[in-house]
Amino acid sequence: MTAQAGVRHATIADVAERAGVSIATVSRVLNRTARVSDETAARVQKAIDELGFVPQAAARHLASRKTSTIGLLLPEVSSQFFFPILQGIEAATRQAGFDLLIAIQPEEQARQLVHSQLGTHNTDGLLIFGGLADSPSLAQFTRLNFPVVLLYQAAPPGSGITSIQIENKNGAHRLVSHLIEVHGARRIAFLRGPQGNQDSGWRETGYRQALVDHQIEFDPRLVEPGNFSEQGGRAAVERLLKNGIQLDAIFAGDDGTAIGALAALNQAGLRVPEDVALAGFDDIPPSRYLNPPLTTVRAPTEQVGHAAVKQLVRRIRTGQADAEVLLPTELVIRQSCGCK
């Protein structure tokens, strides 16, 4: 008897009992052969996640079948940030001899998408953008020993999943330190990204640490949500100005937010950088063409795509990959901070 012989795996009957539905209903959800209400499908999926259920056919064929396809799960591509990373992923995938299957879905629907459109049945491995797969989804892939690489998100400890990240904290620290040391800024607003976003969290950590290192007291009134969008950046600056908050400089969580912030400052009759210095993060292509050109932190966005594919292909072919890849960032000085 092998060590695995005594292990009892969850069955379709166990899933049906946990979800409070019939076996036929579970089968319909798994095979998508008939219409099932969203509420029922969610209950069934929750039971599958909790029990770690793997359909017998998938369990039998997972190790042996090859699709020569890599799956990529993305949120809605609504900013220029995504173009370089898609270029990097597409080029690296083609070079490795794989096809690329892309699914784009709003974040609130991504969990369902991981279990249906993309997964073990039609790809050899998955690239998943930060925040689009919940812990049960990732745990399921770990149980199946299915190759997954996360982009811009740390992997759960012990999961065996690779994560590709950038030096957010150091990049933000260097930028804020430049605003303080070179331009004498002390009232520096930070326009953070979406709540719970790991990149935004590390950028805020770098911002706060730079203030501490320069003996500047943190003022929570200077932190506003910009949500990594032009609209968010514009609204955040409008709130700061409406509330009469004194500003020497603005550190926007990304360049899209900085573009919105610039529009709000211009609308209010404030000059950049004479009245308020401005800086961003990512160095998307339009940043160098703004008036004035934007000081920012260059993130190796296209390289993130290359590195993610390299690690995933290595895992698919050898079963091995690095636990984490951390790519460096670079401070890019232009005129918006006050430099000539």
Describe this structure in words.
The chain has 340 residues and is α/β, with parallel strands linked by helices. Among the domains are: 1-53, lambda repressor-like DNA-binding domains (434 Repressor (Amino-terminal Domain), Orthogonal Bundle), CATH 1.10.260; 168-299 and 331-337, Rossmann fold, CATH 3.40.50. 41% of the residues lie in helices and 15% in strands. The protein has 12 helices and 12 strands. It has a 6-stranded parallel sheet with strand order 2-1-3-4-5-11, with helices on both faces. Strand 8, helix 11 and strand 9 form a beta-alpha-beta unit. The longest helix is centred in the C-terminal third of the chain and has 18 residues, at 301-318. The radius of gyration is 23 Å and the shape is elongated.
Which helices and strands, and how do they pair?
Layout: H1 12-19, H2 23-31, H3 38-51, H4 56-61, E1 69-74, H5 82-95, E2 99-104, H6 110-114, E3 125-129, H7 135-143, E4 148-151, E5 162-166, H8 168-183, E6 188-192, H9 198-213, E7 223-225, H10 230-242, E8 249-252, H11 255-267, E9 277-279, E10 296-298, H12 301-318, E11 324-327, E12 330-332
